[in-house]
Amino acid sequence: MKFGIFLGLAIAATLPVVAMPSLAQRQTSINELRQSSPGITLSGRVVSVVGNDFILDDGTGQIIVDAGPRWWQEIEISEGEELTVTGEVGRSGELDAFSIVRSDGSVMNIRPSQGPPPWAGGPNRRN
């Protein structure tokens, strides 16, 4: 039994140590996105805005960012603006925003990263 433990420790000691970045530190390019990736942070330039949806371009590709319904919270985003968005890729392939940071550092909180969005159930839902 002691030999097995020693052998296991010897093998573990020879494996390389890889430092993994935390989700908050990892910057993802749009080209690398995967639908199952949670907690994605993207930075880029806004190329088009329709309501609370906008297209973000980081130089590797473009993605539609969904910042929730306008009846819940209307955001003011302008074409050409540089933003950092944290969110998750939804079923439709859009990035569902949790938060948006402007180039001046101001933060727009859109929704919590866990659980359903606060607007789930529509504008006539029961609280």
UniProtKB/TrEMBL annotation:
Keywords: Signal. SUPFAM superfamilies: Hypothetical protein YgiW. The keyword Iron does not apply. Residues 1-19 form the signal peptide. InterPro entries: BOBF_sf (IPR036700), CarO-like (IPR005220). Residues 106-127 are annotated as: Disordered. The keyword Ribosomal protein does not apply. This is NirD/YgiW/YdeI family stress tolerance protein.
